[in-house]
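Study this:
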Amino acid sequence: GLLMGFRKGQMEAQLEMADVSDLVHMLPIVTSCITLLPFGMVQNRKKLKKILEKKIKEDQYLKMQFYFFLASFLGCHDVKRLFRKHKIMKLVKQTSEYYNYKWNDTGLTIQNNNFGNRVYSRRGSV
């Protein structure tokens, strides 16, 4: 239902009516659709972001999944820019700093004094 509504251009209505389970499973796709909107649709992007944030605020399970989503896509500039002021993004950044996660052009680097540096690449995410 949610994906078909997005394909038909009914993003706002579908996002408001979406079940939590649909949003959890399709969070990367929903976020991708929001971030890929053209620059001329800034007001629409803001409205969709507010709807998504409202849904996240209302449901604890969705809030937890959103935290994991942001932690997984912290290296994606579009996701980071879209949610830069969200309070969960601040928690994700604190966790990232605590564990010495560093994102750069090559991917994720984990500073570990016992084993040296490890690099995990996430090219083309979202």
The two ends are 21 Å apart (CA to CA). The chain has seven helices and three strands. The first strand starts at residue 101 and ends at 104.
